[in-house]
């Protein structure tokens, strides 16, 4: 993992000072949480703004992601009381801390049984479900990298990445916690591997069927650069510096977003149902006896990813053959299953198929074109085309059923303000169904973005927070004592 810069070191030192003060003030209930004479490790990881790509990540698309200024801090220390204890500190001074604990005996039992047991453990206790993001990464480190928890562990986190806004608060938490715990125990894990392991925790312990772009941006992103990530499964193609003439912002719609929500999950399932059908139409051979019990294909055409199906090929050969919707039991009877490892087709449910299948095919093409324009001469026409690509992405989300009244209104307000206000494009981000809208504009368009946010808040009575600025990807340090 890279070295911390001066600003990040200041964040980490400030968090270390906070850890020392847990026995007084608003956090006095956490007195003795950390021992002052034992080593402690501290890590920082940012949230992200999904500029282009979004839900097409699980279908192998190129995505463009910006690490935001807001970040999560985590500190870890060994303990000897037989428990893994976690405390989440509020960002506001007047708030109260959340705490959770898992005995080391329970942790060892869960770890020896498997991820499904861990997922059920947290599902049975909704009040402590938030702790699954932290315990989940510890469990993954134990199972995948041989981490020994020993006789106890303390982890305290604090975040200014707002939850349920579509800016990857969960990924920032996972990456920060994994780096803090891993560094405490002497595990040196390369950034892209951190992202893969954190995605594993979210998929298999938390039970959220996310792609990898969130964790990858938190782990390896660069300040003021868009991470260009080809999600096949996670190839970093480069870091594209935002030109000084343009800027990107995020505006919170005030509508809660959850990647574990049914809309996101059903759209993902529909996309994998569509890939299964296209594979059948193309004559690809299925392997129902894959080592993990799932379904795979020998796929020399698209390498297993919908995003590799070109729009023209899709329109010419497949679009008319795909059903708009299909019941799960009918699909299972004909096609037996999908290649997805983190969703399942429910027999009694009807899924949209054609649009969730089409979305990543066209989105991949939109992102490639956006990146080409970004790397060229940014004339007014080029930036205008980039904005239209964002509007197209937003419309495709809505066609998939992942829109919301709030995000639609924000996009409409940006379009109405238009180039005269320095604004060129906007789109819903991440998993959709609420959350944050990304906005593209001239570098000096911050006041116009703020005006849209104020008007939206005045009109709806909620949302309106503006994400502005960027920060580097994750970093960590280890010190001798609190």
Overall geometry comes to globular
Strand portion, in percent?
A: 15-25%
Q: Tally the helices: what do you get?
A: 14
The mean pLDDT is 91
> H/E order of the elements?
HEEEEHHHEHHHEEEHEEHEHEHHHEEHEE
What's the total number of strands?
A: 16
Helical proportion, percent range: 40-55%
Structural class of the secondary structure composition?
alpha+beta
Query: How large is the radius of gyration?
Result: 22 Å
Uncertain residue segments: none
Biggest pleated-sheet summary: 8 strands, mixed
N-end to C-end Cα span = 22 Å
Description:
- By secondary structure, this protein is an alpha+beta fold.
- Helices cover 40% and strands 21% of the residues.
- The chain is built from 14 helices and 16 strands.
- The mean pLDDT is 91.
